[in-house]
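Re: Re: C-alpha cell formats

Sure, here are both.
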Amino acid sequence: ELVKPRIVLSDYLTKKLIKFNFIQTLEKVPNSIHVCYLYPFRFIAKHAPVKRETFAKAMELEGFPLSIGYEKPIYLMSLYQKKKMYPNSNFPFEYKNKKSKVSYKKGICPNVEKLHFKELLDTNICNSQRTKKDIDLFIRAIEKVEQNFDELVKIEKNS
C-alpha cells in the first residue's frame, strides 16, 4: 500500500528528469524493483552555469526543497578524524600499544566525497501521499529554474 505509489512515482519522475542534461537520474538494475524513500539524483555541474547549492535554493523558493548531500562520509566524522572513541582509551585505533595504520583522511574515497560535497541532491517528492500531478509541478519548477539560470548566475556573482 505504501510502496507501490513510490515505485510508480519514482519511475515517472525518472522519465521526466531525463530531459535535463544537468541532472543524472537513478540507474535501474535489470530485473529489480527500486523503492525510493528519498529520490536521489546527481547535479552535474559541468552542464549547469550555477552551483548545486544555488539550484537547490531556487527549487526551495519554488516550493520544492531539496536536500544537499546526504550524511557526511562516516570516516570524516570527528570520531575517526581524532581516532578517539572512549575518554580513557584509544581503542580500537590502538590496541596493546600498536597504532592502526588505517587512514581516515579526506580523499580516501573520492567518489563518495564527490557525491556528498558536489553532486548529490534528493527529494521526497515520491512519497505515497503525492501524485503524478505533484511530479509535473516539480518538473515545471526545474524548468523555471533552468530558464532563469542567467539571473541566478548574476545573483551568485553578487553574493
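Second one below.
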Amino acid sequence: IPYVLAPNHQTYVDGLIVAKGLPPSHFERFSALIGADLKTDHGFMGKVILPVSRGVEVERHGNPIRGLVRAVRAAQADNIIMVHPEGTRTYDGLVAPLQDGASFIAMRSEIPLVPVYIEGGFEVFSRYDKLPRRKNPITKKKNRINILFGEPLLPENYDDPSDLTKDLEIWLKAKEAEYLKKNEGKLRQR
C-alpha cells in the first residue's frame, strides 16, 4: 500500500530511524524525498544517504517541482515516500514551519499521509554533532529515540495541500508539546 510518511526532521539518519518502525515488506518500497545538495554539500554522510534512502532528489534552493513530480510518480507506482515537511533538519530540536511538499504528493497521488513524530533524535544526533551521543549529559542515562506514527490523514478530506499541512502541523506540535512536558529539564539546551 503506498503512502506518504511525514516525520519531523531531527537527524541525518531520520530515514533509517523511521524505516526501522515499518514492517519489513514496507521497507522494500521505501524512498525518501531528499535535497539534491546532499550529495555535493554534505560530505561523506550525504553521499551515503542518497543511495541508502533510494532518494528522490528535489532542489531545495531552486525550483522543487521536478522532484515533487518524480515523487508523485514513485508514489503512484506503489512506493512509500518519506518527506520531511520542514525541509531541513531542526536547529533547536523543535518543529519548524512546514512546507506543503508532503501534502502535495499525497493529494496528487491520492494516497494517505501518515504523520510521524521522532522523539529524542535531536538529543542523540543533532546537526551540531559529529557522532551520536549515547548518553544524556545532564541525567547520564542512555539517550532513547521513539517513533510515533499518527492516524493517516486522507487527502480526499482536504481541498488544498495547505489545509492538509495545517492538520499535520497541529499533530506534530501536539506530540512535541507532550515530549517537552515529559522531558522538562532533561533536554539539551535548545
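The CA atoms of residues 125 and 131 lie 7 Å apart. The two ends are 38 Å apart (CA to CA).
- S.
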